[in-house]
Amino acid sequence: MLELLSDRFDAIFSRLRGRGRLSAADIDDTLGQIRTALLDADVNLDVVEALTERIRAEALDEQISRAINPAQQVVKIVLAELTATLGGRPLKIAYASKPPTVVLLAGLQGTGKTTNAAKLARWFKAQGRNPLLVGADLQRPAAVEQLRTLGEQIGVTVFSRPSSPVKAARASLKEAARTGRDVVIVDTAGRLAVDAEMMDQVGRISAAVEPDYTFLAVDAMTGQDAVRTAAAFDRALALDGVILTKLDGDARGGAALSVAEVLGKPIAFASTGERLEDFEAFHPDRLASRILGMGDVETLIEKAETAFEAEEAEEAAARLLEGTFTFDDFLDQLRQIQGLGSLKNLMAMVPGMNRQFKDAEIDDSRLARVTGMIHSMTPRERAAPEVIDASRRRRIAAGSGCRPADVKSLVEQFKQMRTMMKGLGGLGSKGPLGRPAKGRKPPGGGRRSGGRVGAPGGRTTTGGRSSGGRTTPKGPAPIPPLSLPGLESGDFRR
């Protein structure tokens, strides 16, 4: 997502980091590069001019020129101004005092409008709401059937009537009241381009349902065309916000960086993948941070909190440190990781990770290879991988479509990880999750020596001599990564 723009900003700031002081000429040169990068990303010209002027005014401040690290101050200014350009703050949904809250979704064909209607319904359901999807697109063949299929996947009812879009939308309010639905999402018909007939129809639907929110689905890959389309819909419907779709594609960033400032309307949601789960409330500061290569740790944490059950994670961590962690436990962890979304999107949220693997082709099917190997094991083999010999490896490989060497590598690395984590869990007679057990002191009365850790048998050596007890260095103990077959950095296709 927005990789080209992110790479350009990274190159611009890399040139600044080696300079002790920034002159007015340095700032002008940097702003010229930023301007070029934004225009190449198809950002609206007025937006580019306004953004660079705001950055210039802040960067030329006398305090910035005197800063110890002025380059960092410039990055901070660019981050703040990009956030403002993207809308400043996220849109907070306010629900109608008398349900249902009505959401009207409009857009052109090909923007993913119907799919995002289902994604929006799933999002409302996750907020504890009881949504109803309304198929008011009676023009496109099978549009209502597509919506019904998507509704079944997320457990949301779809309402529609073949009479007319306006009548179907109006009747949906009565249906929502009858069935106790507190959110109604109306999917309207789109066209290949803005025309009078489409605007007339969506206008009459809007008048019939009097929506609390009117959102426009905008294709993030269309640049300034998306801004012109959004302006036309806003004149007809008075939009409340925008849903950016296809942010996982080859989006140059023009739509994302232009629509909020040009329209004066917020970006409400963003679709970041093909799955119904790949949909989130839009946070301007987080996207600005990702554009500048700083990652998005907050979104990653939110995804993890949603996917991982805290109690299960605590129990799994305890088993890991006790040395009783099994392949079944590991399989559960893999399922939860896959529930977070694509690996490429996840790595883009980790600061610096996207830059490290920017040329790597990361295929999510690689996790499926590991999952397949574990599924091909018997219950005994999952619980006790030490019983897996050569003949068992051949059987597992045949059942999972992998090589016996892949199975051997997975099993050996798993056993090494389990052994080493068990050793870490025993440091200083610690309890579960590595915390010191109450009332206990580390061996040796808590004293530390200057020895090194890692001698055979868990001994500490100093100058080649063995000494009794273990030594725990300051700071957290290093945890070796589990490098899975097919997931090593050298195995990425470049």
Summarize the structure.
The chain has helices spanning 3-17, 24-40, 45-59, 62-65, 70-85, 113-126, 143-154, 165-179, 196-209, 224-237, 254-263, 284-291, 297-307, 310-322, 327-338, 343-349, 353-356, 365-375, 379-383, 390-400, 404-425; strands at 101-106, 131-136, 158-159, 183-188, 213-219, 241-245, 267-271, 279-281, 460-462, 465-467. By secondary structure, the chain is α/β, with parallel strands linked by helices.
Q: How would you describe this protein?
A:
This protein has 494 residues and is an alpha/beta fold. It folds into three domains: 3-85, Four Helix Bundle (Hemerythrin (Met), subunit A) (Up-down Bundle), CATH 1.20.120; 101-294, P-loop containing nucleotide triphosphate hydrolases (Rossmann fold, 3-Layer(aba) Sandwich); 305-424, 434 Repressor (Amino-terminal Domain) (Orthogonal Bundle), CATH 1.10.260.30. The chain has 21 helices and ten strands. The chain has helices at residues 3-17, 24-40, 45-59, 62-65, 70-85, 113-126, 143-154, 165-179, 196-209, 224-237, 254-263, 284-291, 297-307, 310-322, 327-338, 343-349, 353-356, 365-375, 379-383, 390-400, 404-425, and strands at residues 101-106, 131-136, 158-159, 183-188, 213-219, 241-245, 267-271, 279-281, 460-462, 465-467. The strands form two sheets. It has an eight-stranded mixed β-sheet, with helices on both faces. Strand 9 (460-462) and strand 10 (465-467) form a beta hairpin. Helix 6 (113-126) runs parallel beside helix 7. The radius of gyration is 28 Å and the shape is flat. It starts with a helix and ends in a 27-residue tail after the last strand.
